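As a representative case, we now present a protein record of this kind.
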Amino acid sequence: QVQLVESGGGLVQPGGSLRLSCAASGSIFTVYAMGWYRQAPGKQHELVATITGDGIINYADSVNGRFTISRDNAKNTVYLQMNSLKPEDTAVYYCNAHLQIGISRGDYWGQGTQVTVSS
């Protein structure tokens, strides 16, 4: 059984900051790429940022320069530091991890954490 547990969402004013965390636990053999996606009401699910096991990072254009993704491989945890938040960043944020369990590889998702940017 694999779990991805997210934390750190909440309500913040425009220009503020939040830090999301996501810890993967269970019978994990290897954690490959980890990342964050989001879905706002009425909009499609979209990539926010990803980071490989080697530290190669990719950001959506809309968050580049404001968000920072990082990971702690020893803890199987990925973080998303979000600065200069805008109302359009309001969404449910989902953690994703590409994992190897035994001889099988696949994508796993967290339950989602709400981020609301509003004055």
The chain has a mean pLDDT of 96. The radius of gyration is 14 Å. The longest strand covers residues 91-101.
